[in-house]
Write a structure and sequence with these properties.
This protein is of the alpha+beta class and 425 residues long. The protein has helices at 17-33, 47-55, 59-64, 83-92, 137-153, 172-183, 192-200, 211-217, 229-244, 289-292, 307-314, 333-348, 362-371, 382-387, 408-424, and strands spanning 37-38, 44-46, 66-69, 75-78, 102-111, 123-132, 160-165, 250-251, 265-270, 279-285, 300-306, 326-330, 353-354, 376-380, 389-394, 400-404. Strand 9 and strand 10 (279-285) form a beta hairpin.
Amino acid sequence: MKFTAAKGTRDILPGEVEIWQRVEACAHRLFTLYGFREIRTPIFEPTELFGKSTGADTDIVIKEMYTFPDRSDRSLTLRPEGTPGVVRAAIEEGLLRRGDVERLYYIGPMFRYERPQKGRYRQFSQIGVEVFGSAHPAIDAEVMEMVVALFTSLGIESARLMVNSVGHPGCRPAYREALRAALLPRSDELCADCRRRLDVNPLRIFDCKVPECGRIRQEAPVILDYLCQECGDHLRQVRECLEALEVPHDLNPRLVRGLDYYTRTTFEVASDRLGAQNALCGGGRYDDLVASMGGPPTPGFGFAIGADRLVMVVAEKGACPVPADVYIVHLGDAALKEALSAARHLRRRGLTTRLDPDARDMKKQMAKASAWGARQALIIGEQELTRGAYALKRLADGRQVDVPAGNWDEIKREVAHGGQDALGA
């Protein structure tokens, strides 16, 4: 019997894994520079957590969650997004009691039962950030500047930041009713989901990907015309802070996030390299979420990046092997034993070292060294064993020097020195 991966899942193989590692390492490094700390929450949570936070009538909760009873008949759900679990942990573990701004980030798998398509899977990964404890517009701008910096550091120069406001519970109802009134006469032209959204929460119609629904909503009123003075001022200050941070952005009055908890600022970062489904990242402010989940009144702001789609943009075609500092070429049985010992010592000194114990021919071993992206080849043969010195050959230009056998620190210095010379050349 032949087994295949479940629909909507995939294997991430060597060659692509290294790109994931690069993306994740960049996120760890950058978020730390901005004062964020990593948090790791369970992959499954009590089902009611998501109904309470994400919204009981959202598409995620109604259609997309992986929910199951455990052996005690408690309903559990594989997390479809990261924010509810982080908020639950922050409340439960007392992270919000210090009276200071708490900055957290997470990286991990999420699960949604949706139609698989390019860059979208039923098991997918998110890189997310949450800030608790400040309602200041500068927080919104600083976090958006950080995510733009992340994309820039990964070489994504074409990403576009779009910003809007969805108001707050005081001013949003008026817009909701205006939107419903404008779309109700054309409800027969909407898809079945949007007809349901029209009754429950018409703002979610802006999330629909059906082309006809998109055309109809372009004629609908925009929320900016219904913001109260306070929400309008907040949006203006967010944009002023973005300008102070020199972050280019566009105001998109039809940008509405599909989750119930957002208030005021919403934003999205899109890439023209992903086609129609071009969003890399989305987020916004959620000042009422913590209190609604039983915590103290605490403003919040955050975002989530679709890591699978981000890796697609970052990835280059073909394999991406981890380059080796040194590839050890061995010639003869005695040289192989010496090569194994040399590899052990070099790895303990932090040098990425490769060798192939099955290889015998020098030409083939040098070809493998190049294929693995090795910077230098350490050659060990009978002659080298006899004279007590190895040959170290720089593959970039063929420069070769003798290095003392067994003096591993000296060999490490020569490897580093040779690599710097190659970079300078």
